[in-house]
TrEMBL record:
Stretches assigned to the Aminotransferase class I/classII large domain: 7-240
Protein family according to the UniProt entry: Belongs to the class-II pyridoxal-phosphate-dependent aminotransferase family. MalY/PatB cystathionine beta-lyase subfamily.
Record flagged with keyword Calcium: no
CDD domains: AAT_like
Organism: Streptomyces microflavus
Keywords: Lyase, Pyridoxal phosphate
Needed co-factor(s): pyridoxal 5'-phosphate
InterPro entries referenced in this protein's UniProt entry, alphabetically: Aminotransferase_I/II_large, Class-II_PLP-Dep_Aminotrans, PyrdxlP-dep_Trfase, PyrdxlP-dep_Trfase_major, PyrdxlP-dep_Trfase_small
Signal peptide annotation: none
Protein name as it appears in the record: cysteine-S-conjugate beta-lyase
E.C. numbers: 4.4.1.13
Length: 248
């Protein structure tokens, strides 16, 4: 459903077969940071229709200047609805250690929490977290603040470059940096390019892989990862521009 479309959300939650709302907060791939009143409304609607909420907040540590992430625990704690909920996250996105396969979760209802742990232990054989992952999370959250601040600033510069370059050569896009994350979600529909042909040119001619929006149910968009050295971002953006010009 469209991001921020409350009417569409309520229609989906009111369906008889709606059981769980999976919320991405901040949103991937758009980089949208949900406001407190939006989250409160989601909580109210979910509780009204008996829908559990699983809030995926893995990008929460990468919110850019001027925006504030509101965790789901604060929403339910402020009276925005109780219901059944879980908040899941990991340091793997912000601190770049996904290979350690670690994550953590908070589950509001004690019975749900006990059942989740029972299933993990009996069905999955996972009685404890990976030691390396646990150690990495503790170190990152205790001591990684200055490093993360520097990385966010660097990525903000990368996003600024993308905005400046696209504004200069493809002004019809009206692209602006996301509120969170290191992903540039770019709407190319104004150019009229064909998705399949664009991907072919990017891969075969430019030797650059950019994820197409169709993966997210949004044809006409591309998702460019800028969480990398500036030189790679420049190469990727220039390749995208050349590919668009070649197929439009």
């Amino acid at each position: 459903m469209p991001v921020g479309d409350e009417a569409a959300l309520e229609r989906e939650l009111s369906r008889a077969d709606a059981k769980v709302l999976v919320l991405c907060s901040p949103h991937n791939p758009t980089g949208r940071v949900w406001a407190a009143d939006e989250l409160t409304r989601m909580a109210e609607l979910s509780e009204r229709y008996g829908v559990a909420v699983v809030s995926d907040e893995i990008h929460a540590d990468f919110v850019h200047e001027g925006y504030v992430h509101v965790p789901w625990t604060r929403v339910v704690g402020a009276g925005g609805g109780a219901g059944r909920w879980a908040l899941i996250s990991s340091g793997s996105k912000a601190f770049n250690f996904p290979a350690l396969t670690g994550a953590y979760g908070l589950i509001g209802d004690p019975a749900d929490r006990a059942e989740y742990l029972r299933r993990m232990e009996t069905a999955e054989g996972l009685a404890s977290p990976a030691v390396l992952s646990l150690t990495a999370h503790i170190a990152a959250y205790r001591e990684g603040g200055p490093w993360l601040d520097a990385v966010r600033a660097y990525v903000a510069g990368n996003l600024g470059f993308v905005a400046e370059r696209l504004s200069a050569v493809l002004p019809e896009l009206g692209w602006e940096p996301p509120q969170a994350g290191y992903l540039a979600w770019i709407d190319l529909r104004a150019t009229g390019v064909d998705d399949a042909e664009l991907q072919r040119v990017l891969v075969e001619r430019e030797r650059v892989a950019v994820m197409g929006g169709a993966v997210y149910g949004a044809p006409g968009f591309v998702r460019l990862n800028v969480g990398c050295p500036r030189a790679k971002v420049v190469r990727g953006v220039e390749a995208l521009v050349r590919a668009v010009e070649a197929v439009r």
